[in-house]
Amino acid sequence: MITNRISTNLYVAEDPRFGNYNKDIVYRLLQQVQIDFSNWIGNDVFHTSDCIISYKDECPTIYDNGQIGHKICLHVSGDDWWRWVYQFSHEYCHHLINGTMSGDISGMIWFEEAICDLSAIAHLKRLIVLCDVLRIDSLLSYKDYVILCLHANLGSAQKNCREYLRSNMATLEQPVYQREIYSNLSATILPFFEENNHLWKIILHFGDMRKWDSLEDLFSHLFYTSDDSYSVSLRKLYNLLL
């Protein structure tokens, strides 16, 4: 497989199924996801295992690539910039969490999926800003288009998140992907991560989310491993959810 290295540990495969796309822009947008995460959780993002971005004909997925690291497969082609960012930032969040890549929906994997959906939304919002910074806007107003895509993929923030979780917990415990619930949860907790970007550091302590028995147990661990840069925000998040 021929790949292009776009950062210290990030590669993009040369694959005709990606179609013709502006590599300068796409690579810059993918790099920005990594840069933003480094600002939020630290420069360790540049020292994780290697991550290779490849094409897939179906829904985006991340795989354990053995000693090589991880392989992120995206279902995107051409200069569909918002989709590059949206799909990659979701899977890259899984990469940073670095749990098992079995595909099983069990334990607290539903919370990981909600956080990764949150990553996709957060980075789409960053793309709206980057349209001006990177001058990829045009007379067609690509920024307005990204805003439409953001709203189309943004869930509904819940007024009573604790009740919403209680009423959907039996569903979340089933081994079935529940995109709408994940999306609604991510929309609800988004303001806490916008208020304090360091709250993203919690993903460094998730580990294998399939091994956690409950949200309470997970948060006990997250409180224990938190630092002063986000401990107050973590308490706010706990109060919202539990």
From TrEMBL:
This protein's source sits in the domain of life called Bacteria
Protein name per Swiss-Prot or TrEMBL: Peptidase MA-like domain-containing protein
